[in-house]
Specification:
alpha+beta
């Protein structure tokens, strides 16, 4: 599991069980899948960044895994495109 989601230690906010998501891209995907946001707060390690706390329901973990997989695939595709672009630049120079 990536560092952008807290999976081991669920937190409780206002008597609701929740999960912290540290990635804006993952949080956005979960919001689009209609998961309820319990709280939004600054990241203690980096106050410029935001932590989004979602209510953990029956479908949350499956949707979270799907969002993480999709994010990883998109990231790998971007990295591959960057590598190809760098090789093309080297050939042109």
């Amino acid at each position: 599991m990536e560092k952008n989601v807290s999976m081991e230690n669920p937190i409780t906010v206002d008597d609701e069980k929740g999960r912290c998501v540290y990635s804006a891209a993952i949080a956005r995907a979960l919001i689009h899948k209609d998961h309820k946001v319990i709280d939004i707060k600054p990241n203690r390690a980096d106050p410029v960044r935001t932590v989004v706390v979602f209510r953990e329901d029956d479908t949350f973990n499956a949707d979270l895994e799907a969002a993480l997989t999709e994010y990883g695939e998109k990231k790998e595709k971007r990295n591959e495109q960057r590598r190809l672009n760098e090789k093309a630049r080297e050939v042109l120079l």
